[in-house]
Design a protein that fits this description.
Elements: H1 2-12, E1 23-33, E2 35-40, E3 46-51, E4 56-65, E5 69-75, E6 92-95, E7 104-111, E8 118-129, E9 133-138, E10 153-159, E11 161-162, E12 166-171, E13 174-175, E14 184-187, E15 195-201, E16 211-217, E17 227-232, E18 238-244, E19 249-252, E20 258-268, E21 272-277, E22 287-289, E23 292-295, E24 304-311, E25 318-326, E26 328-338, E27 353-362, E28 368-373, E29 376-377, E30 384-387, E31 397-402, E32 411-418, E33 427-433, E34 439-444, E35 451-455, E36 460-463, E37 465-470, E38 475-479, E39 493-495, E40 499-502, E41 511-517, E42 522-523, E43 529-543, E44 546-550, E45 556-560, E46 562-567, E47 573-578, E48 581-582, E49 595-599, E50 606-614, E51 617-626, E52 632-634, E53 642-645, E54 649-658, E55 667-676, E56 679-687, E57 699-707, E58 712-720, E59 728-732, E60 738-739, E61 743-744, E62 759-760, E63 769-771, E64 798-801, E65 812-816, E66 819-820, E67 836-844, E68 851-859, E69 863-872, E70 880-886, E71 892-899, E72 908-917, E73 928-929, H2 940-956
Helix pairs in contact: 1-2
Length: about 950
Amino acid sequence: MELLWILLFSSVYPLTGGQGVYAPANAQIVHSGEACNVKDDNISERIYTIKEGDTLVLQCIVKGHPRPQVRWTKTAGSASDKFQEKPIFNETLRIESIKRIKGGRYYCKADNGVGVAAIKSIRVDVQYLDVPVLTVHQTISDVRGSYYQEKTVFLRCTVNSNPPARFTWKRGNMLIEQSKDNGVDIYEPLYTQGETKVLKLKNLRPRDFANYTCQVSVRNVCNIEDKSITFSLTNATSPPMIRLSVNDTVVVDPGQDVLLNCEVTAGFPPPTVLWSLYSRSLPLSAQVRGPTLILRAVTLDDAGVYNCTAVNNVGNPARKIVNLVVRTMSNLTFQITPDSNKDSETIQMGRDLKLSCHVDATPQDKVNYTWYKNGAPVFNSESLILLRSDPDMAPGTSSLEIVDMKFRDLATYSCVANFPGSRVLELRVDVNVSQNSVSPPVLSVPPGGQVVSVREGGNVELVCLVVDGKPRPPILWSRAEKDLLMPSGTATTETPDGRLRLKNVSRDMMGAYRCQTAPYNGLNIKRRELQVQLNVQFPPILDPVFQDARWRNSQMVTLRCNILRSNPPRLTDIRWFRNGDFIRMPTADLKEIPELKFKLEPTNNGSYECRVSNNAGTSTCTFNVSAQPYNAEFYFDTPNPVRIQKGNNYSYNLQWTQKDPEATDRIIGYWINVRKNKQNVLWKQIDLKGKEPEQGVLISHTISDLKIPLSYEVRLSPITTYSTGDFVSRIIQYSEPYTYPRPSDHVCGFENERICGFSQDRSDIFDWTRQNHLTRNPKRSANTGPETDRSGSKEGYYMYIETSFPRVQGDKARLLSPLFNVSSVRGPKGSGRVPYCVSFYYHMKGKHIGTLNVLLRVRSIASVDSVVWMKSGHQGPEWRKAFFDISPSGPFQIVFEGIRGPSFEGDIAIDDVSITIGKCKQENTAASAVLTGGSHTLPVASWLTFGLSCILSLLYR
């Protein structure tokens, strides 16, 4: 009796103190999909191995109350906390057709706001095997005559794989073994990309001219088949050689057609010619016809470096490149530079003057500049000096220097830029040089324009004008603050008229803007510079933007709206509204924090708004004020919530807690609504009978007469004296209840229709069948299936799968044992797990026998299946015994999975199943956790053990 009270106290205590059932998140990663295997490495990290192209499915199963939220993230294979991919907020992570770059460490983070978040990880190892690449090379020496007159040839086989590949070399169909052939060497070179094995043919012999095969294997990991490649080595084998039909650089006009021919001049086997464009794909208009590349009506986008490569896997690939240049010319500018030696900013007689001309062109060095004076060509003279490329200016700039300026030099000078012989239009700029036409610029900001204010989201124009000076240069705008870019994303913005237009202005555009005269299209002198301040006005920034506020009726309520920032800072108005109606109250002090105080009544619940305004606009704090109770919080970790009832029905023990029950009026009950396919099955009120919910304490209600195996939607809403809360919903599902088996020495022979509590899996393709010799179908398939049960009795029953029509290859049938609860049993000293011995007999006779798997299904946070025994193919005409040990970590089931083979002669049967506590022995005398078909007398100790199990079962209810 003392033991009973200790067990009772230890079961009830977690629900009565502190946070009650509120518990931090707990997480476990389970897998499904198409994993090859899951194992633990030497640092106890789980490794999930999967074949490239298969589907990765990882589930993050969580416990904790309230229900934790799940977030998946990934790193690129290191323990770094810096997540490198977009997180996924879902309990299931699914990646279709996984690629090798998706391998790495995946993290599941579960958080419910209680304690520290739970983080679990699993490393995904993607397995793959590419087709190998075989190349042939010669020794470095003079080449005389045919390529393979040298003494030594190297066959290099390279492959990318995971895990590392195993290489096999063959000459013809014969395996090459270094120890049996002195003429070969097989070794792994250093500093190679991928995995490489070299076959070295020394002192080349006539029999070495043959077909060589390199076969690579990852030893059938993840059912990845071996790959191979064959090369025919002959005395004609030679590396590729090519030549181009054009020069290395081809310059064309836009709209021209371009034909590039890459002629193969040598190589056996015949090389394959490939065209590519550096750093990007070939243009859509490109046509590749064998070794010829045709580009129709080229544009500027077609320019680039084209690469012709010839490959035949002998020696190194032959490569030639063509730089295709498409002519372009734009943005012709000029500069007027007064005598720099005299530090002058004006044109003066007797002093030097330089006129410069620059155009943005491709190719820049092919531009031809021609200068004219009053329409006549200019030639070099003592007073006029032409510089085709001025070293003092930007590359590609032409200058005309006027020495010791005279009145005769006052004229209109023209600079013409063109490509000789090209269809690209020439560009021309005229510069009028006179004492009245050239003067320094003067910058000015219009009155009131030094500080410009605009509301956020509006449009604005910053103005900086050249009010004097000839010619008038463009204006360059930039941010005065260092490292800040212009709204366009560039460092500077050019405006021809000095007006910078900004659209949809945001507060991050606020600040000082610098305007400067450009050094071109005007005098090349010290830049003129001014600043304009942009002031972006925005409505007040408030806190909170929204708040869900719950109080009891008749309680004093205080709503406070904090002003964090405002531009302009001066407020113009503060108003309070309830459900959209203005609340009349004394004029608010605009310098104080806005507050509203009132007594909560059933009539003044609703949405309250505090609207705060300045000259830029209005912002709002919203408060949802009510005495409505907070939502119920479903409890998802109820142990064994399902109970079997009569008539194929079940009941479900629904449990929940009430969020902050003291915040609002007293909760007197709950509305519960059970639905199936949106049709109401149950709608009623749960009466708490005067007992108020407590923070963190579970509330339970049993829902009866649910149909096995259907699932239902349950909706729950709290009720107070004055109001009803919002509904929350969850799905409840049928699951097999826990079993507390009694110890016995008997096994399950399936002798009655209850089959010892075994059940058919509802997610498989077909079912196991109970039969004996007398109930067999007389038209059954011959040459398969047992004649008797395991004991040799024709009256004895067994379970089997019938593989005749309509079954097809791969169909599965699963038979589930009862769900055993091992929580009341302790393992050996120093161990937390209890060993069990699983024993059964199987019969697998027939030429089409498929596979019999035995799986251990452990229920921890979720159900996880693992194969613990497997047998395939014909095993003879007799019954055979199988037994093995398991150490489940929690409640478990044994699953017998029969898989249909290629045809109908493939019946599989099982009989005499037993599950005993303790490791398997020759004569197993340990207490059995049995599946019995009949009644048996039990010793007193067995009844005591069974009674203790029942007590624990009641406590879990």
